[in-house]
Amino acid sequence: LMGRLTRRSFGFCSRKDTERAMEALQQMGLAGKAQVSFAALSGGQRQAVLIARALVADAEVLLLDEPTAHVDVAAEERLMASLKALRKDLTLVTVSHDLAFVSRSVPKVVCVNRCVHVHPTTELTEARLRELYGFEVRMVQHDHEHLDSHGGHHHG
Length: 156
What we know:
Blueprint: H1 15-27, H2 43-56, E1 61-65, H3 73-86, E2 91-95, H4 99-105, E3 108-113, E4 115-120, H5 126-133
Parallel strand pairs: 1-2
Antiparallel strand pairs: 3-4
Helix pairs in contact: 1-2
């Protein structure tokens, strides 16, 4: 309910505030965690709760700084799906050094290295990155299942 603080009267939350908070948790896939303390949540769940808080505050722009830091692969996939859905209603600005996440989750990328370069994510290639940053980068397409020590989980 923290996202509704500016709408609160004398420290009380309205039924509408509570309903909106539950809707935001549902939207982020966390309705079942509404009564769990923030400290007891995983890194991915905490990230989703913070985004839900912004949704409850009726934010028009979300600024995300390294949203995949400290989250596991499954949480990253859920986060990516949520962010793609949110793009319909919000402007999302994401700062990330995770090229795999960026290349799979955003339509446009801004590269900064002394100059600012804006281009579609489809133009995020090894050659483009070498040109912009002056060093070799290997991009790996990772859209297949593993049957090895990763336990057979799916990437992509």
